[in-house]
Amino acid sequence: MEEVRVVPACSDQLKPVVGQRFQSLEFAIAFYDVYARAVGFDTRKQGVRKVDEVTTWYYVVCNREGHKKSIDDDQLNARSGFSMKRRCLSKRCGCKASISFKYFSDNGHPGYMVHDFNEVHNHDMVESEHQQFMTVNRHLDNVHQKFILDCSKANIGPTLTFKVLKETLGGFDLVGWTVGDIRNASRDIKAYAHGFDVQMVLDDMAKKKEMSESYTYHYEVNENNQLVPLFWCDGLMKMNGNMFGDIVAFDTTYNTNRYCMIFCPFTGKDNHGSPATFAAGLLCNEKTGAFGWLFRRFVECMGIAPKMIVTDQDNGMRSGIEEVLVGTRHRWCMWHIMHKLSTKIPNRHFWIPAYFRDFPLGSMIRTTSISESENSFYKRFLKPRANIAEFYMNFNHAVEFQRNSRTALDYHDATALPILATTLPFEKHASTLYTDTMFRKIQEEIVEGNDRCRVLGFSSTEFVDTYKLGDSHRKSYLVTYDRSAESYYCECKLFGRHGYLCRHIFFIFRNNELKKIPEKYCQSRWMKTPLAKAVHGEIHDDIPTRSVVDDRQAVSKQGISMFYGFLRRFEEDIDLLRAFVGGVEEHGKSLQAGNPTTSAIEKRRMIEEFYGMVRPEVVEVHPPDVVKTKGHASSSKSRLISKREKALKDASRPQRRCKACDEMGHHDSRNCPRLKEMEMEKELGKGKSTI
After folding, report:
1. By CB distance 3.0 to 4.6 Å, which of 235, 460, 477, 654 could disulfide with 491?
2. 3-class secondary structure, 71
3. Do residues 93 and 123 make contact, with C-beta atoms less than 8 angstroms apart?
4. Are residues 80 and 657 in contact, defined by beta-carbon separation less than 8 angstroms?
5. Who's near 215: CB < 8 A, 6+ residues apart?
6. Which 8-state DSSP code applies to residue 234?
7. What pLDDT band is residue 114 in, cutting at 50, 70 and 90?
8. pLDDT tier at 190 (50, 70, 90 boundaries)?
9. Are 205 and 235 contacting, i.e. CB atoms less than 8 angstroms apart?
10. What average pLDDT does the chain have?
11. How far is CA 164 from CA 108, 167, 246, 252, 430, in A?
């Protein structure tokens, strides 16, 4: 077969010439890349020679130079339907096109010259519609890397990032890279913190502690200076704990970081009935001592232990609670109970509602699960392969999202006018007291009391009236009204369990023609935020109520917004658009002239901005080894599998050819059964000859 000879045609100004000189090696390489891009082929470095750290020779070849190794194995693999190994294609076809640059020094002025240039290729050049996929045309500049990092912060993956860029820039050919390039760039930038991630987080926590006394964090290390446990709580978390931390849900979450450290958030419900985070921790084991350490730090931070803590059925948690939270009532989460009901019958006092019916707001544990809903929420932000710095960053994003949702609900309560279902004056009064989420539940009770409750019996003494009321559920309850104390009590105990009055008491309100709900019943956790009172502890005025935004980041966002605003304004007039872009470029160069930045400095700055933390020069606390948590063997190679599982697993795997027996199967030469039989026969033969 006749060899193809292709000499690319291009302008003489773009084509290299032997003896051509350049000021630096970077200029020389860039010139050849421009030539390759113009004619349609990719390049790669083949080799370099150095003398005393000075590059004396530099060789660049066409990326289709050479041949792929193991062609015979590839043919055998292809005949077997690529069952032996993964199908991997190659572009190499033995192209000889190349260029070499040689170092020179002319009167003390160093530079590089073209020493050898071969422009003949043995393949066709890349067509113009395909040139967008060439490596030489795929380059991520700083702006694009910043965009990729911003998308990564928002949990937008490489594929969706590529789609957004395609729409923003106007076409696939204008993007300038592939999904794989975006994935690799994100991977490389995140790897920047490898080995430094724990120290970065601790340094950031120390900085926040200096800025605010309300910020709390504790950690411990082992004999190798590796992180073991970590606890942290900022000012807003502490304020939420003081406001709503009478009942705390505590649960462990797995697969949130690359070290498999156990994520332990302390959560509860705010006045809107939405999840609120009080503190968080990371542990390396699930023993009693680890949980006890975390509970101790939590009580020290809040200044008081919660009245009730809701957990799953972990024995380590239970022992830690009994050791540290002595006066706290411990209850199991109903979500876990319903999944393990048959094994939890003996421990009724930990979960059956009758045992905590009289406990204030004890009904909160009857919900689907505070902790499980929080875990599901955090899973949307946290990633299994994230380092500790990225985990900490994503956790802060999740908390910011949570706080923003609550702020939106507060705004809705402050501005929206409620829709009333009756003409009762205390219903309107309730709409001014309670958050909208809870008012809808209270409104249901008011409507039920007004429309469906009836008197079944009545008795009265000097100070106490007693009513026997029936409701729509065909149940009857005794309701007492103490006129001397202006107090109401109902047998259903809804107020004690949920924190708002029941339909039976609202029926008595209507009969007694009350205009407003008595003040003693207006002090629950479900009040609107300006009216809410702390369930325990004190709220200090120095606790910041909103996150601190870096001035540099705020100005950067302002600049981006301004740029896109002018860009959209001028995009209809090409002359104005060119003048705008040219003016921005000229002004940017004038500002940069006195303060040039290298790509390495710019890349480091972007990475530090991505994490919001600076990589330290000295590492005192190192990341932990990968933690083995409960049930880890179920997903690891250490678990023994049955013959049935092995057969099902082998059936789903493609077969490959064994080099020992030359048969297709699920084995290779290391565990070939035919080879083992031959070895056993050989051993038996040796034994017989010895006899």
Report:
1. 477
2. helix
3. yes
4. yes
5. 205, 208, 209, 232, 233, 234, 235
6. -
7. very high
8. confident
9. no
10. 82
11. 51, 5, 45, 36, 47
Classify the C-alpha dihedral 390-393-395-401 as positive or negative. negative
* Residue count (the chain): 691
Rounded CA-CA distance 359/365 in Å is: 11
DSSP assignments along 433-497, one per residue: HB-HHHHHHHHHHHHHHHHT-EEEEEEE-SSEEEEEEE-TTS-EEEEEEETTTTEEEETT-HHHH
DSSP secondary structure letter of residue 8: -
* Per-residue tokens: 110: 């160093």
**Tokens 């190499």 — which residue?**
92
Backbone angles phi, psi at 620, to 5 degrees: -100, -35
CA distance 7 to 3: 13
pLDDT digits (tens, 9 = 90+) for 16-64: 999 999 989 989 999 999 999 899 999 999 999 999 888 999 999 999 8
**Nearest of 274, 264, 360 to residue 317 by alpha carbon:** 264
Apex 535 CA angle, 531 and 541, nearest 5:
65
Q: Which residues pair with 47 in a beta bridge?
A: 59
Predicted confidence (pLDDT) at residue 548 exceeds the cutoff of 60: no
Query: Which among 180-184, 252-256, 453-457 has the top mean pLDDT?
Result: 453-457
What is the amino acid identity at position 461? T
- CA–CA distance, 500 with 273 (Å, rounded to integer): 13
Tokens 């009904």, located at residue? 363
pLDDT of residue 647: 76
Tokens of 415: 């501005």
| pLDDT tens, position by position, 378-434 | 888 888 888 999 999 999 999 999 999 999 999 999 999 999 999 999 999 999 999
180: left (phi over 0), alpha (psi -120 to 50) or beta: alpha
Residue 212 · residue 238 · CB < 8 Å: no
Residue 366 CA from chain centroid, whole number: 29
CB-CB contact of 573 with 341 (8 Å):
no
